[in-house]
Design brief:
With about 150 residues, the chain is α/β, with parallel strands linked by helices. It has six helices and five strands.
Length: about 150
């Protein structure tokens, strides 16, 4: 994330994250870099549907597409950008090596990533297969993909 932070700082741009299955891992990776406080506006870990909804994700979207969907990730990226007034919003939701009894719908072992670019009103969406054997390794896989996408768009 060092290069991401450097570019955002140079361009005077900001970022915010709404994470679910990564549990704050993206925000952690960002804040591990000196100078991150210049670019990270806000981060929320919305592990439950209740708090996704409180942060602006439409309950209708969750009901129609499931909490594990690109549509939910898009809602997350948009709403966190709006909430934090940031240039980029990152939304992450998905299942990592487990079945969710509270949300039985949606693909297993798929993570949905949406990065919202407010200035251009564009979304950069990716599906990542959680192919690693541990949750920790899958989180790292997702964080690496987010870093790659950010580097390609900022």
């Amino acid at each position: 994330m060092k290069e991401v932070i450097a570019i955002l700082t140079e361009k005077n741009k900001t970022i915010a994250t709404m994470e679910s299955c990564t549990g704050g891992g993206v925000a952690n990776a960002i804040t591990n870099v000196e100078g991150a406080s210049e670019v990270l506006k806000f981060s929320a870990v919305t592990y439950s549907n209740e708090y996704k909804i409180k942060m602006g994700v439409s309950s209708d979207v969750i009901a129609k597409y499931s909490v594990y969907s690109m549509e939910t990730a898009v809602e997350m990226s948009t709403n966190i950008s709006k909430f934090a007034n940031s240039d980029y919003g990152v939304g992450i939701t998905g299942k990592l090596n487990r079945v969710d009894q509270n949300n039985p719908y949606g693909e297993d072992n798929i993570v949905f990533i949406s990065i919202y670019d407010r200035d251009n009103n564009e979304y950069y969406n990716k599906k990542v297969e959680a192919v690693e054997s541990s949750r920790e390794a899958n989180k790292e896989l997702v964080i690496k993909k987010i870093e790659e996408v950010l580097l390609s768009i900022i």
